[in-house]
Amino acid sequence: MNRFVKMLFVFMACIFWTGSSVWGGFKFGIDDQTGKEKPGASQLKEYDRQDPLIDILISKGVITEEEAKKIQKEVVVLEEQRQHEKYEVAKGIDDKVLRGEIGAWTQLWYQYVEHGKKDGGDLNDFMARRFYLYLKGDITPYLSFFTHLAADRVGQEGLDSPSVGLGSGIAIRDLWITLKLHEALKVQVGRMYVPLTRNYGTTSTKCMLTTDLPILQGGVRGNIFYASKVGRDDSVTIWGNPLDGLLQYRFMVSEGVENDNNPDDNLRFAGRVALNLLEPEKNWFNMGTYLGKKKVLSLGLGCDTQNDLTLNGREDQNNLVWTADVFFDHPLGSGAITAEAAYIDIKNCTQTHNFSELAAGDDAKNWYIQSGYLLPGNIGPGRLQPYVKYEAVDVDNKDDTEFITAGLNYFVKGHNAKVSMDYTYVGQDSDRKDQSIATFQLAVGF
């Protein structure tokens, strides 16, 4: 562990030494000493006849008033050319500048879980739900990288998978290199989100509306219904924002299910397309609520498939998932409203879920709807945002499960400092016991 910490420190120091500013986090870089403001007519001052040399030349009869005006025009043109050359030099330097960013994020939880212990007793659990340290950099205008070092659910009772940073340990959560050929065409290689759902395929877990993800996608204390490395997969992804962001597409070829459950080592194919009818969402990570700072209406479709798998002992099973979702975020008076809904259809599920009857090889339907309202005005230093969510899991030929949630966010400094309280009721049609889960969260980051 000491060796890992030393290597991480050296790597961070190297990045800190080489970079420049991009977005969010702590930005660093090389100062541009030449200036980058593009010249224009507003920057150029005409000769105002206060130059004593010109006045002397006119008084001595060396030049006339008309000749002085001609000199004045020539000076303006020469100055404009000089400023343009200066700008081009600055632009060339900017193309060679390395840009970088470092940031950290943590979400600390206390959670009460009714019947949460193995013996059926109630559970009181403190944990670090997420700790993320991220590094990103632009090496050239066409080549960039991003990485998340992460620990999730550290201290959660009954969970200990240090190799993927769950329960204990630190792992690489995201790690990719992007080749940007055009805003409409980017090639991304590494470990990244699976482009299927909006909520865990595009939304940053730092900026969610609710305290956590939908339970079928790994929220609260649930696990994820699709094959992943904590919501990610090792892959090649092509994505972009054609038509100035009216569309965003993401298409991935990845590993998916591995080892004995994929005897032919077949590849996984996943993709997602979003239509942005108001302001575009062009980033890899979107927000789950924009707090009144953006007007978004996004319609999304996603698909995920992998063939010839062994699921729950049954061979030659083809997994197919498709989803449709809608997201709306808009200022409303002095506040802002956020609403999101999604439907997911699952054929031959690859994972067994711990909070419902869904098992590997099952067919199921899942849907959720959630909404929140950012209240006008401040209460103390921050603002309140109540929210509600309903989620259902309907497994073919098995009993259903529903999740009813209500919560409250208090934003001290936007998503960078917030306090959240969340209550979720788990209702089972099966013989499983119904449960109440209460979560209190402190989240800070930069």
Q: What would you say this structure looks like, in words?
A:
This protein has 446 residues and is mainly beta. The chain has 2 domains: 35-96, no CATH class; 183-445, Porin (Beta Barrel), CATH 2.40.160.10. Helices cover 13% and strands 45% of the residues. It is built from 3 helices and 17 strands. A 16-stranded antiparallel β-barrel has the order 2-3-4-5-6-7-8-9-10-11-12-13-14-15-16-17. The protein is elongated and about 110 Å long.
List the helices and strands and how they pair.
Elements: H1 2-18, E1 26-28, H2 52-59, H3 65-96, E2 99-113, E3 123-140, E4 143-154, E5 171-182, E6 185-193, E7 232-240, E8 247-254, E9 268-276, E10 296-311, E11 314-332, E12 335-347, E13 364-374, E14 383-395, E15 401-411, E16 417-428, E17 435-445
Gist?
By secondary structure, the protein is mainly beta. It has helices spanning 2-18, 52-59, 65-96, and strands at residues 26-28, 99-113, 123-140, 143-154, 171-182, 185-193, 232-240, 247-254, 268-276, 296-311, 314-332, 335-347, 364-374, 383-395, 401-411, 417-428, 435-445. It has three helices and 17 strands.
